[in-house]
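Researcher: Structure prediction, please.
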Amino acid sequence: MAKYVFDSNIFINLQRRQPIDIYPSLWSKIGDLMENGTIISSQEVYDEIMIGGDDLEKWAKARKECFLPSSVPVQQEVRAILVSHRGLVEGGSKKNSADPFVIALAKQEHCKVVTEESRTRNVKSPKIPDVCDAYQIECIDFVGFAREEKFAF
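Model: Predicted structure follows.
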């Protein structure tokens, strides 16, 4: 059973700071956790990763089945999230279009969200942690995730 839903920025920022070619053991561990179902993410996150045209895109393509298509319950949850947290997607910009799907998937699967976003406490422009708080979904950053999973390299 999945324990974590990864936001796009986890994959993207890791690739920037710990590139796949320099930190293969880190990426192998994340890949293993995705393949065994501990980490999941949404199709919308996958779509955001595909914009990069880099090693991360190739890495994600090899794990496409770990990026789940939105089920009807997840889509319904996304609609409910956007009714009360419209500012989450910044006026419909592509920049944050995966965010409500990440939260909805975590809610449906009873997972923690892993994101690098910080709370804004601004109801007009919330970030993932703000919305997770509203739904009692635990939200942690990558270091918190790595500690929980006892990563050591």
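Model: The mean pLDDT is 93.
Researcher: Thanks, that helps.
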